[in-house]
Task: structure prediction
Amino acid sequence: MKAVIQHVPGKRHMTMAGLLEAFPDAQVINCDGRPMTTFYRCLLAAGETASLMFEDDVTLCRGFKEKVSAVVEDNPGRLITFFSLRTMGVEGLTELPGSSYLMNQCYYLPPGMAAGIAEYLKTWPRIKEHPTGFDLVIRDYLVHTKTKYLLHEPSLVQHDMVRSELGKRATRRQSPTFRYDQ
Result:
């Protein structure tokens, strides 16, 4: 499984160090000032390969790789997100409709899905309305393809409390279910 990190150069150096320690062979895609183009380049980097996708402002739980590998091994053909703003419903995996997809901090794309999303993004009708809406692209793709996804709870990553580099967004977008030592 390939790891792809969407990175804002010069920022997030502490969490990037943790991500690169866990995934030394990760492909890092640096933001070029055009966020949606950078997201598209991340999708192209993943291509047809099963990929674990990260934004650069996350902290991994202890044992992250082992936990993710076990979940993916049992669900290799499903999109799985490992971050949630929800208060925990059921511990483990919950299947949800594509219309509820939210937050791109860390998610698994099965083989071929990144290429499908990249192709969909080329004609995504809401790009002017949401120029940094990466999660909305995925949500709309899932709805368009009538695909459900899996949400893992508790969250296996935490979104760091830092100012967004993508514009006016709240800094308090942390998962209530994340536990470092889970």
